[in-house]
Amino acid sequence: MKRTYALLLSLLLLVALSACGKKEPPTLKVIVEQQDRNMVITAETGSFKLGVDGHMHVQINDGPVAMPNGNRYTLSNREPGTYKIFVSIADKDHNDLGVSETVVFEMK
Asked: Could you count the other beta carbons within 10 Å of the beta carbon of residue 82?
């Protein structure tokens, strides 16, 4: 009886510990704002913590990819015009997680 109880307790503990390590898949909402001549890009990712669980890749008008460490990226001294902003989420090893959003933004 004691052995059965110990086995059952071990199994319950294993299930509880495995459930604690699960994270929801990341979600993504991109917010772009103009602050003076600067474009500020903010990513909201739900339970996925940018700078901890991974990072975002930001590409402006099909240019080079920036990889800021947090959830905010600021581009200074932007000219007025239309900008296509592509943001995707990657893990710590730069593997794309298949979560992305494209925003078209008008700088005034």
From this structure: 9
What confidence tens digit (pLDDT) does each residue in 6-47 have? 555 555 555 554 555 556 778 999 999 999 999 999 999 999
What is the rounded CA–CA span in Å between residue 105 and residue 108? 10
**Structure tokens belonging to residue 45:** 């990712």
The whole-model pTM stands at 0.78
Q: Where are the alpha helices (DSSP H) in the chain?
A: 2-20
d(CA 35, CA 7): 60
CB 95 within 8 A of CB 75: no
Cα–Cα nearest to 107, from 36, 12, 16, 28: 36
Kindly state the DSSP code that residue 72 receives in the 8-state scheme.
E
Tokens 């992305």, located at residue = 100
Query: Measured between alpha carbons, how far is 14 from 66 in angstroms, rounded to an integer?
Result: 40
